């Protein structure tokens, strides 16, 4: 990471805390590693991102419905899914710093450094070595690669490494009042299994016909050993997943379709298309016959924000075997019973949140020959902005606050607003720019005469005079979900 990109990433983190988007969890107790809290603006932005996903996935698709499955599930669920035996990461410890790292991520960081230093051949060769070792599950080879490329511990700076070994990422706990009779259960490491075990419930009660999908937004938990890159990798995180059930043999066609649909969804938010790319998996999970990541170019490099996977019939077949309940679908079009194949779209909400912050945070130089000036602005799409508009009386006297409050009382029934009467109007504009408020409504002395107000547009900083009575309609049009969703149809 160059100093410029490193500084930008630090600016994102500090801005997120300063303006109430993201706080370190339990900060008064020095925090908890890889755990974060969303503040007053962060929770609003997060909810808006969930709404955008839910509307685009469930509301726009007649054959996709949503559920909300419990976090706790019968422990056999995780045996059937393979998580008990196979949900592991290759870990390596540095004996001097006593820190534990994912071996593959240490190597990926080295690949990024080679690429940034212009050593493309070395980066490509190291990527091939890593892919070969991962495909072969060769832990000894992973350690050898770390040694051959002189990869050091980021803390101690030494190469005093242990052997690479597997580490299970699931959190286990006890369910039951009595210690002797307690049953070991797990905090779910993914939300997908809650969909699979409810496949028949949804299909039968909803009279769903193949192809159809089940969507879900929910918390998942993984004992990520490495806390790094802010909210990119956390122990408690939120997923937005949709499992799309299809007829066997049609899965790759649907896989391609969903791959294109999901990238289009990201780009609709207004990001630079050059910052996104597809990354096909070099090593497929044993249950998959195709897998791709949608990656975004963060300040620290391209990283996954969403995965699209063709999971075949593995999940339903496994649950049929372990539960002894038939997970088949009768297809009247071909007069045949079969276990459906599944296309999965899975997006990390926290990573999407970071993507939106990184894509929106801009520092603009507004200097003129007469005056030095600048502003920091979050250029959120208006539909997802935490605060839709700010109501600002020009001064704190002469009845302007009363008129502003009157306008606010009408608009807050439909929109999340802020009221601010402290400091000069220019400072108040800057505060709203910094939290991404797309529109500011200024109430001035002319308002008292003709009941018009000024709307100031965040991105252009242009101002227009409009009747106060028209504000509800004007703001509704500017922040409407339709402005996003129409791009997806």
Automatic annotation (TrEMBL):
Coiled-coil region: 116-143
Subcellular location: Cytoplasm
Binding-site residues for ATP, renumbered to this chain: 222-224, 304-305, 348-351
Residues bound to substrate: 102, 190, 237-241, 344-348
Stretches assigned to the Aminoacyl-transfer RNA synthetases class-II family profile domain: 124-393
Keyword ATP-binding attributed: yes
Listed HAMAP family: Gly_tRNA_synth_B (MF_00253_B)
Quaternary organization: Homodimer.
Protein name: Glycine--tRNA ligase
Organism (species): Sphingobacterium allocomposti
Organism taxonomic ancestry: Bacteria, Pseudomonadati, Bacteroidota, Sphingobacteriia, Sphingobacteriales
